[in-house]
Records
---
Amino acid sequence: MWADLKLELEAKLLPLVGQVPAGSKLNLILADSACAIDIVRVVASNGAQFADAWLDSDPLAG
């Protein structure tokens, strides 16, 4: 499941975010299936950590 989502986010979302360097990739750094929360790290093509992002299946849940 993460592998498919990773490819989709890298191909369709990251290019739309102007501040994210071209060629950046996502690394899963925390997966909490009980809470349906994932934290991913955006890593630039030169290996520099660029940002962390919180992915939640329900953005309105606490």
---
Amino acid sequence: MRFTLNGWRRIGIVVVSLWIIVLLAVTFTEYSIKSAGFFVVQNIPVGTVIDGNKVTLPDGKVITISEEEEFKLRLAKERNLTPWQIDWSEITSVPKVAEVRWQRLGLLVLFAPLIIWLFAEVAVLTVFWVRRGFVAGERRDS
């Protein structure tokens, strides 16, 4: 069976292309304005050491955090949370780094359109197959 690029498939290609462009634009916007969004997360820099109310950044700069922020960190440690499970947006004195959630972006950019496309192709081929059966039955009856 040979697939041709009829009008519907061309519209599908355009829609998928627009989908990819929009998702990449949203990701770039979230990353550039350093906001925590669906595709971008704000984390502390890798190599940051937290000891009590002192935070040592990878470049050697030491930051003193408030008692309230230290309490939040101690509470997270008591709950046995790993560093990536802590909501660092509440600790405002520690600088954050924007990181892209590549798996989430990849799944939505590539696999969502692929799965929808395959489902649509199978549905259309099934409808044509069933319709062809009715048309062939009408020809035999006449």
---
Amino acid sequence: MTRDNVSSAASDYPARADAPEPRFGCPRCGSEDIHGVSTTYVSYPITAWDEDGMPVGFGNPEYGDGDEFDTYECRDCLRKGGVDLAEFAFLQPVRLA
């Protein structure tokens, strides 16, 4: 999809009243119904092993931070039947206005 297509697709969606300026949206359809997806890492100290080297005991979990978004999801593309991650997820939204 070219930037011209994104700009025209964006006009199909009204601006959200609570949307801050500048506006960004989905690079495929121009929707502003975007969710940020972050990964929070949880590690468990291994406290016991079996004879085959498989962990069988764990300590308390330690949580990493999830402050940065790994990817973004367009909820409109997802609602339109996006099954494959490539159909609704992207790394960077595009500027709409």
---
Amino acid sequence: MSSYYTQAVFINEVPDFLSIEKISYEVQFSNSISKNLYKVLVIPAYSLSKNESASLVIKVDKIPIKKIKLDIYSRSTYPVKKISLKSILSETCTDRKNTCTFDLKLKIYQIDKKNNRAILMNYNSIELLSKKENKYTGYYIYRRSKKLSQTSKETIEYINNPNKLKNEYVKKALSIFKAESSKSGSKEYQPLIYKIVMVKIFESFLKEASNPKTIIEDIDNIFGKNVTDSSTAENYAFYHIYEALIRANENDPGYDKIQHFTHSAYLAYTSFKMTVDAAQYGAEAWDAIMGGSSDDYESDMYANNLGQAYGNRLYKRFNP
């Protein structure tokens, strides 16, 4: 009979928002079949062979959250490792006291308008949002609309360190929007902020362009398409900053106006005619972006028409 045992584990704290039914465990052995446990707070000691090792995997909603190496003892009397699930912000393991707290990997950030950086919210705020939104893992941006947008660790890194961006268009977009944020201060952004930002992006790259059509196509592929269709960690950096700080109303139009304006400018430039049906371009832009009808919002059509007018000017400028 084996005289070697894993240490037992006691989950001594669980956040109020996290139901025990959502927590499960897997005890993994190097030389034998794993054991699974559900709806418990105590993981018992298990016997194992002399040279065998064991780890405990803690899961929330079946998603592995943490893997902990279990100590092995050659006697039936062994210390109990205490693990707290109370903290969702940081991990602390004190081997001397045989006690751990660990990260549930739920990170919720707010975008600071002054410097456009992603700031991690405090523990109490995250705990309240976790309970309200039923979120336990992942990275999220808290928007001014009080909604959460899912993001990634990589995108947060790009937001806070834009110099790491390889995409020059996105890097320029972040720089321009940061300047506009600083200019507006505590007040609302300028009316038609989406047009102001996108025109500055276009002009920054077109002023010395040998092939303006390629530049316009590149900008459309990034800013004129549905975010999920052009989604990269870099593209999401600008999207999340804009969506976090801009309220979707007539004064602070949402990111979809960026898409409408950009794609309509692209369509007008690449399909230029002396007489243009603005509604036609509006419908094409709406279909390309949302896959639906353009007759839902007048503000969408207005953004389309502004983009079309700008695209026409670009065509005349580069095709005299």
